[in-house]
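Exercise 7. Given the components listed, write out the predicted structure of the assembled complex. Treat all entries as one system.
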Amino acid sequence: MNVDLLLTLPVLIPLTASALCVAAWGAMRLQVAITVISSAALLVVSLILLMAVAHGAVLVTRFGDWAAPFAIAFAADRLAGAMVAVTGVLGLAVAIYAMADVRRIAAISGFYPLYNGLLSGVTGAFLTADLFNLYVWFEVMLIASFGLLVLNKTRDQLDAGMKYLALNILGTLLFLAGIALAYNAAGTLNLADLAVTLQSGEQGAVGDIAAWLLLLAFLMKAGAFPLFAWLPASYHTGSIAVTAIFAGLLTKVGVYAIIRIYTLVVPLEGTLLQPILLVVAGLTMVTGVFGAAVQWDVRRILSFHIISQIGYMLLGLALYTPYAIAAAVFYVVHHIIVKANLFLVAGVMAREGGSYDVRENGGLALMTPFLAVLFLVPALSLGGIPPLSGFWAKLMIIDAGLEVEAWILTGVALAVGLLTLFSMGKIWAYAFWRAPAGAVRRTVGWQRMVPIAGLAAVTVAIGLNAEPLVAFSLAAAEQLIEPTDYIAALLPPEGAAVAEADQ
Amino acid sequence: MRETDPGYVPPKVMPSPILSASAGLLASVMMVIAIVILLRGHNAPGGGFIGGLVACGAYVVIAFAFGAKRSLKLLGIHPVTMAGVGLVLAVLSGLPSLGLGIPFLTHLWSDVPTELGVLKLGTTYLFDIGVFLVVVGSFTAFFFMFEEN
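Answer.
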């Protein structure tokens, strides 16, 4: 497949699907068909893209065929390829789950166009190599996710939606201000061009302030301490399909943006931002896990655990050794699959047991042994029990921490892992292990069970055969720390010549 | 009864005869101008977005004069469907170049000789028409939503 097509399709497929779903307004079966087919196509294309970048190639396309620093470019290295591939996996899984989960009112109000729109925003953010274009994809995600959040139009959802929107718009404004200052300092927003210009060291304070503002904006999007208030305020109100795709992808786009910008454009090492990010990572882990400890609603427990897990990923980046960044990459991939799966399981738990509150639940292990197994896989993986994927993810982070003798943060990471296990144990002990609470069981359907089983299989597969993904993460980290290929692909010599001729 | 009281029904306002007499003419002129702006955008200020806004104005005038139902009928299809079709068209306009192995959204032109001179037909037209339909569809959808409430 040619490179232009390969880089465009991951955005084009969901975008077209979204447009077709809007055009098929009112025809629900058609919208479902479009969504499932397009998600499957997205998965296929994203896997082809992953294979194309797996050996270290950096693919670039410039829209409209404009010259190098001026065109809006999409670029894919190993990290971007992996993120798009995971998006493909999750997109298809949740699309199938949604066939059973989305209520009629939500479907009529536009679940399918918004869902596809969200996927196009996410893949666009992973692939773009232009700072302003990144902002555009963040906006696409924000609009689509706000729409998805308030689909059922209940009082809870509108309340949560307003908090979500207000706080995220604040992050968006910070992002925009950062972009303006970066453009002021460097005169360009192409990531490679920006990297070259800002690192020439002549930009001074304006470039620094831009870097601070952008980090603040991305930390907010990622749900890091102390800017995560929007996340637990809103995630539990959406339908399960919506919450699962949010939990899997939205905050991780923020993490991805931090990894991309603070390795390529403003390398973190030796800057004032590095110790700050280390502290933020530690506090994010701790506050998230303590927040989860006092919750009883499965969805709220899981929401707070998203925050604590974000801390691990940030810790990986902030340690800034090749091994630590590889650990962060591994962690992101593992986490997207596991966390989304836990939410999908929570949806089935509530149908089987009658409630999201674990205290009102019970006896699920006896009632549905199969579901119990499918809960244990992602739950134990999240807690870091071998041989599941989470064990290797945590092991790599902790190993990387010990390597640079960051004793305190490594200790925090270990303790938070134990507390995570405690939280998962709480869900297990109440909802699964107790005597049945006499709940009303409702039909579950294969549409819910197949994606859960599929994602659990991925988790087990990564756990039992971690070597390929570890090797891939290490290679990806190498590409991130030494981004000469990425910059060369985005700024070819003839492009530079055009830029000079233009001045 | 005040407006805040429950069960308050706003009084029926008699439609202004001036408005209903002139609305048809006004809307037609606006529609023509909208299409001129749309086509003009090819080489001069204008284009699908602005043209779409003006066209939306035409439907709003009809809605004020004769009610939203009449305006919707004139629109032919559901406004949201129209926006979706427009988005599909805009995406389609970028595809021919991908088929030729050049990046997405690289626009292509062909010179069509006519009696008046050479007509430059390009994929940008398709893009602009797509934008036009998205704007008309989404803005009228918003407007009619408020009308209904």
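Discussion: Residues 123-148 of chain B form the longest helix (26 residues). The radius of gyration of chain B is 20 Å.
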